[in-house]
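Page 37, continued from 36.
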């Protein structure tokens, strides 16, 4: 076998190896990109479902089919701080109904203990109805922050000492992936975390019943 032939074989082997490495790298990047996209889609779907529930509940603060049972409406918010709120409303027993005339108490709160070693920022978001113990939503919630405003639009300092002053509120929600693909990079890089995070903010969310004063 001539020298040129051996050289050709070696060169072909090296080029083939490089092409294989490039193909493997492109495949790995495609898999990671697809996983990030799917993870982000799951987060957005979870956020939409959670927002639907939160907005529905908060807009019904102070509502009761029998309006005499929450009168005046400004007594509807029982307690409020930056991460929790308890209020009175009327939860319908029939999904197609507007209410059953019975006053219910809903308590929203953000847990304080990390629940996921893959994402130490994740917390459980609790929705407790009439004092019933629940496990909380494990959707990757990392932030549930509330701000409150009076009838003049001025911020009420939290924790709120007089919930009767609350006229509107601001709700902030953040969700992050419970199991990010690039876990090491996720912990160390703020830019990488943005690939696994979705936000929602409702400014000046108002319940019609809180305005009826």
């Amino acid at each position: 076998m001539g020298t040129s032939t051996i050289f050709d074989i070696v060169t072909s082997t090296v080029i083939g190896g490089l092409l294989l490495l490039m193909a493997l790298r492109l495949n790995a990047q495609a898999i990671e990109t697809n996983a990030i996209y799917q993870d982000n889609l799951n987060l957005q779907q979870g956020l939409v479902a959670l927002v639907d529930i939160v907005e529905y509940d908060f807009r019904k603060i102070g509502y009761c089919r029998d309006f005499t049972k929450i009168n005046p409406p400004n007594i509807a918010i029982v307690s409020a701080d930056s991460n929790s709120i308890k209020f009175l409303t009327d939860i319908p027993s029939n999904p197609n109904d507007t209410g059953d005339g019975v006053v219910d108490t809903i308590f929203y709160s953000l847990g304080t203990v990390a629940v996921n070693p893959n994402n130490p920022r994740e917390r459980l978001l609790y929705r407790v109805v009439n004092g019933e113990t629940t496990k909380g939503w494990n959707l990757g919630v990392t932030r549930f922050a509330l701000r409150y405003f009076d009838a003049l639009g001025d911020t009420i300092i939290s924790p709120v000492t007089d919930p009767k002053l609350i006229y509107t509120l601001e709700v902030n929600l953040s969700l992050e992936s419970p199991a990010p693909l690039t876990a090491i990079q996720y912990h160390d890089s703020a830019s990488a975390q943005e690939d696994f995070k979705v936000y929602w903010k409702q400014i000046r969310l108002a319940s019609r019943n809180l305005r009826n004063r």
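The mean pLDDT is 81. Flag for discussion at group meeting. Residues 74 and 164 are 5 Å apart (CA to CA).
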